[in-house]
Design a protein that fits this description.
Structural class: alpha+beta
Number of domains: 1
Shape: globular
CATH superfamily: RNA polymerase, RBP11-like subunit
CATH class: Alpha Beta
Radius of gyration: 15 Å
Order of helices and strands: EEHEEH
Helix content: 40-55%
Strand content: 35-45%
Length: 92
Amino acid sequence: MLAEITDFNENELELKLQEEDISIMYIIQHELLKERNVEFAGVTLKHPLIRDYTLRIATKRGNPIEAIRDVSVSTSNYLKEIASTLKANLKK
């Protein structure tokens, strides 16, 4: 995954993301929207044939970089749990 910060201020962050599946971006967006201090989280696809996305986050208070970092860690742990459960059930 290639990530580049295209816009950043006290409460907003915009990332340009490339070479990643959009489903990962939607999971991160979903988890961000569960957070109380996140006011907005959205993913846009620039073109359907090019895997080039924009992820925008706006927080009510707090650093948006910290919000995405925290959610990324919790999302990673959640996906590991799902993978573990699937592996265990597929062996049966």
